[in-house]
Design brief:
The complex is a heterodimer of chains A (about 180) and B (about 260).
Chain A: H1 2-16, E1 34-41, H2 43-47, E2 50-53, E3 60-66, E4 69-74, E5 78-83, E6 91-97, E7 104-107, E8 110-115, E9 118-123, E10 131-136, E11 152-153, E12 162-170, E13 177-178
Antiparallel strand pairs in A: 1-12, 2-6, 3-4, 4-5, 5-6, 7-8, 8-9, 9-10, 11-13
Chain B: H1 4-23, E1 39-40, E2 46-49, E3 52-56, E4 60-65, E5 73-79, E6 84-90, E7 93-98, E8 101-106, E9 114-120, E10 128-131, E11 134-139, E12 152-158, E13 166-173, E14 179-182, E15 185-189, E16 195-199, E17 207-212, E18 219-223, E19 226-231, E20 234-240, E21 246-253
Antiparallel strand pairs in B: 2-3, 3-4, 4-5, 6-7, 7-8, 8-9, 10-11, 11-12, 12-13, 14-15, 15-16, 16-17, 18-19, 19-20, 20-21
Chain lengths: ~180, ~260
């Protein structure tokens, strides 16, 4: 009797190690034929930072003030640099185009900005001509999954590039990843 | 004349208290800058205190040493829970807003913050600002934030002992995003609904003075009686004094 019990326990134990292909991931949500697919960009494209002429605000994000300057994030796109010496007449000086940028901080003449997972150091001694002096890769941990829950998605593949966004698409087959 | 003497004493005491409070403040009272660094809004994931740059990712606090400002070097990573959203340094503490609460770190050694406490609240989206002994936390209900029937609120938390934060009041809000505090004014952004100006002469009990519906507001910076608000409509600047009105200065529109 004891032996049978031991045997069945062992069998169960071993079985529990097998991957169960039939029910991938334990989502409480049933797959409805749609899922999220990563949008990739190659690293060169991402690290391209350009100083451009002043641009109008489109979707302003966070703000930061330093000395007489105002920095306004353009969601995911870069930073507007504004001379705010006279708050009645702020003057738009330049735009630094940085993909994946949402945050800013300044110490002395150095501006720190996120560029997806990279941390950029930008010399703003001359705010009309800001210069990127350094990019620290993987400084900011990012997730390789969509910012949503209860959804299925195609697992991100580092070899294909950096995930910059997620798009909801129709999927014939239930993708492997769920959260 | 006799009647005036107690008043005089009260006045002197008040001035003394203000001087005292300012003295321990090293310039942070206006959610503000030490001379060589700037000021961000309450929604920030980046913050600088002394020679440290703090970055909060969704689940960690990354600390960079910026003594050599052009060459940030990693000092430490503190793994945190989940849903980390904002960071606000104030005096010797870091206040970190997360989806399930507010973390308070001791920051006496800026390159090696130590977790003191966590003020836990219902699941929501919530930046935090601090002035004196009180932290103001907005909790926004919404699809990805607070779910179910819960409503949005502005919580006032006594942080005089940062190891034991205590809720002292909760006020109903519509859909609060960023907020800013300075002196006896607290401004709360309400997204597309506008922003509120509240009086905090009694810092435990914010009293709404005005709700500016015409300016969509996502985040705000308050300092030196100046108010900078951003939102869908662009960036608005105002000046304010002791009265409850705002003087419009300028607007950088969204085009």
């Amino acid at each position: 009797m004891k032996r049978t019990l031991l045997l069945s326990c062992l069998t169960l134990l071993i079985l529990s190690c097998y991957p169960r292909d039939s029910e991938p991931f334990v989502g409480n949500v049933k797959f409805d034929g749609t899922g999220y697919r990563p949008v990739y960009k190659n690293p060169d494209e991402i690290s391209k930072v350009e100083v451009q002429a002043a641009q109008a605000l489109k979707t302003p994000g966070k703000i930061y003030t330093f000395d007489r300057f105002l920095f306004i994030n353009e969601l995911g796109k870069g930073i507007h640099i504004i001379d705010n010496t006279d708050p009645k007449k702020p003057e738009n000086l330049s735009f630094v185009s940085i993909l994946g940028n949402y945050d800013i901080a300044v110490k002395d003449n150095w501006l720190y900005a996120d560029n997806f997972s990279n941390l950029l150091v930008i010399d703003i001694a001359n705010p009309k001509v800001p210069k990127v002096v350094k990019s620290i890769p993987n400084a900011i941990p990012v997730h390789n999954y969509p910012p949503l829950q209860g959804i299925y998605f195609e697992c991100a593949d580092e070899k294909k590039g950096v995930v910059v966004d997620w798009e909801k698409v129709d999927m014939a087959k239930q993708p492997k990843c769920y959260r | 004349m006799k009647k005036l003497i107690p008043l005089l004493f009260l006045g002197l005491a008040a001035i003394g208290l203000m001087l005292l409070l300012n003295a321990c403040d090293d310039g942070k009272a206006d959610s503000g800058p030490s001379p060589q660094t700037g000021t961000g809004g309450s929604m920030a994931r980046f913050a600088i205190a002394e020679n440290s740059l703090y970055i909060v990712s969704k689940q960690s606090l990354e600390v960079y040493d910026i003594n050599d400002a052009a060459n940030p070097t990693k000092a430490v990573t503190k793994n945190m829970g989940f849903g980390i959203e904002t960071i606000f340094p104030y005096q010797k503490n870091l206040f970190i807003g997360a989806m399930d609460g507010m973390y308070i770190y001791d920051n006496a050694k800026p390159n090696a913050p130590v977790l003191l406490s966590k003020y836990t609240h219902v699941f929501s989206c919530d930046p935090v600002v601090v002035q004196g002994r009180y932290a103001y936390v907005t909790l926004r209900a919404g699809v990805t934030c607070r779910t179910g029937t819960a409503f949005s609120s502005l919580d006032v938390v006594d942080i005089s002992d940062p190891a034991k934060p205590q809720l002292v009041g909760s006020h109903r809000m519509d859909s609060p995003y960023g907020l800013g505090v300075s002196g006896n004014k607290l401004f709360v952004c309400e997204g597309d609904k506008g922003f509120r100006m509240m009086d905090i002469s009694d810092p435990k009990v914010p009293i709404q003075k005005h709700f500016f519906h015409e300016v969509p507001a996502y985040d705000v910076i308050v300092r030196n009686n100046q108010l900078i608000v951003t939102g869908k409509g662009g960036l608005y600047q105002y000046k304010y004094g002791d009265s409850d009105s705002l003087e419009y200065l300028s607007k950088i529109p969204v085009l």
